[in-house]
Design goal:
Helices cover about 5% and strands about 40% of the residues.
Length: about 180
Amino acid sequence: MMQLEEWSLTIGEIVAPFGLAGEMKVRLETDFPERFGRLREVCVRRSPEQAQLYAVESTRPHKGQILLRLRGVASIEDAEILRNTFLQVRPQDAVRLPKNEYYIHELIGCDVVTDSGRPLGRLNSVLRGGGNDVYVIGEGKDEILLAAIKEVVREVDLARRCIVVSPTPGLLPGEAEEV
């Protein structure tokens, strides 16, 4: 197996064989499940050091997941070997997003500053779910959680790796809440 570093954008996880002929159930890690219908090749990654390219023979939706058949995976035993591996594509193969929408992997590591210039730290992760995403900035006792909504996130400059925010008054450490 190879490293295939350029194949780094995870779009799903193989969670189980499906049937006896090598088809597999894939849990989606993408907001664009229709992309599976266009896949010709995919990287199957077990670890950062273990990855292999496969030709995609077929895909089809099934109960909120994708059923996937890869060339060379012809039995339930072959499929079982790939359980708990991740399916990845190259970032340049990502679905194009509308203006002012970004992939999480593009945002992670950006410096976050307030619109008044106060540095808050680096964006470490994004919590998904609920009504909106939440940006996790900094770590430990210095961690800041900010709603990723247009009233808070004022500017994203990927070229400068910077996100400008306007947090609710009183939210940041060291700020007294207005009464």
